[in-house]
Specification:
Layout lengths: L3 H11 L4 E4 L5 H11 L10 H13 L4 E6 H6 L1 H10 L5 E7 L12 H8 L3 E3 L5 H15 L3 E6 L28 H4 L6 H12 L4 H7 L14 H7 L3 H10 L4 E4 L2 H4 L10 E3 L4 H10 L6 E5 H18 L4 E6 L2 E2 L5 E2 L4 H6 L6 E4 L5 H13 L4 E6 L2
Helix pairs in contact: 1-2, 1-7, 3-5, 3-14, 12-17, 14-15
């Protein structure tokens, strides 16, 4: 008989999961190793749970079944992304397999991961070894029915237990209709859509069908940029108009942004951003889209968001040797949270390890320069980071 870690890996493969992320931790590590022994394309480890979770989420939004294998403490580090993933939703199934070190033998402390998941709101089930593979398979079906991330929790100490061999199920493949289509009211986490996305999430969790939700919940009004934006945001967006006028002509299949200035250009007439979650999430979301098979994917972020969390995604792109394309709006401040200044040289310090990939737009109103830099970046077969100097 297989041990539980092997049975879980086999079930992931049978469920046509194509993107699996993992940060080393007791129980998760053994399962990830079993996955890499049978996966068509082995996956690298991740260094931080927030981008690991977000990469898997980005892949699921773009139509690829995904999973993240984390220790319970790792889920706590990914919670920022997990909260926003609920509101952004998914398209294909996305399951977090959480390994709980209940005795604290391999952890710095003991804490209640069930309570954390209940607080976040992610649907979850705690499993015993004998039911784990069936629960994992059912979790993908639940995720796709609700179009939400879901989780299962296992005792990490059980991964070495022998369990019955999982039975292959013919209908475990993703439904043929699970195809990503741009829908910013659903996949763009924004203050302008917050009420709508809350109502939609609550209806899903009540068990309402997606069809019924579409009939009963009125879609939000879509503003135009910059005219319909709140005044503070409008002033911040105006200097960026020339950049986005050019960017919209070269953008690829998917553009991931942050809940900041970038997301304001998701609206007409620009339509330059498709998916956003937390500040700094654009980079791992874009990686997930790439791993789901989307072409010419871009991420877009601001300097504050990138310094805060986005740089963690660059480590992931480098590990995977992906030709990620990223633009960073360098305005020297945290504009959406009140304009707090960023210290001189901070962005350059964080980007120092990627200097060969950096290109700069130093005249953000000069469309010829913008076009030339963006076209070079879009055509490159390596990573490109376009810094738009708009202070």
């Amino acid at each position: 008989m297989p041990i539980l870690s092997e049975a879980l890996a086999t079930t992931l493969l049978d469920c046509a999961v194509s993107v699996v992320t993992h940060v080393p931790g007791y129980g998760a590590t053994e399962t990830f190793a079993a996955w890499n022994r049978i996966a068509p394309t082995p996956s690298p480890i991740s260094f931080h749970e927030e981008p690991a979770f977000t990469i898997a989420h980005g892949a699921a939004v773009c139509g690829a079944r995904s999973a993240t294998l984390l220790k319970s403490h790792g889920l706590a580090k990914a919670a920022n992304s997990a909260v926003d993933a609920l509101f952004a939703g998914t398209v294909a199934g996305f399951v977090s397999v959480i390994f709980d070190d209940a005795t604290g033998a391999h952890s710095d402390c003991i804490f209640d991961v069930d309570a954390l998941l209940r607080g976040i709101g992610i649907p979850f089930q705690r499993c015993n070894p004998g039911s784990a593979t069936q629960a994992l398979r059912a979790a993908f079906a639940t995720s796709e029915r609700l179009q939400l991330p879901v989780a299962i929790i296992l005792d990490a100490a059980d991964v070495h237990q022998e369990v019955p061999a999982p039975i292959s199920v013919a209908n475990s493949q993703p439904h043929h209709h699970l195809r990503w289509a741009r829908s910013i009211a659903h996949h763009l986490v924004s203050p302008l859509f917050a009420s709508h996305q809350r109502d939609r999430l609550q209806a899903k969790l009540r068990g309402e069908t997606l069809e019924a939700i579409a009939e009963t919940i009125t879609p939000p009004a879509i503003p135009t940029t910059p005219d319909d934006l709140p005044e503070t945001w409008r002033r911040a967006a105006l200097p960026l108009v020339p950049f986005f006028q050019e960017f919209r002509t070269i953008r690829g299949q998917v553009v991931a942004g942050d809940t900041g200035l970038t997301s304001l250009f998701a609206f007409p007439p620009f339509d330059c951003v498709d998916i956003t979650t937390y500040m700094g999430g654009s980079v791992p979301l874009a990686i997930g889209a790439m791993l789901a098979g989307r072409k010419n994917v871009w991420g877009g972020t601001g300097d504050f968001s990138f310094i805060a969390a986005g740089h963690l995604g660059l480590i992931e792109a480098t590990t995977r040797q992906l030709p990620l394309k990223l633009f960073i709006l360098d305005n020297g401040a945290a504009v959406v949270t009140g304009g707090q200044p960023i210290g001189p040289g901070m962005l350059d310090c964080v980007l120092a390890g990627y200097a060969d990939s950096v290109r700069r737009i130093v005249l953000p109103a000069e469309r010829d320069q913008i076009r030339a830099v963006l076209e070079e970046a879009a055509a490159a077969t390596e990573m490109r980071i376009v810094v738009v100097e708009c202070r």
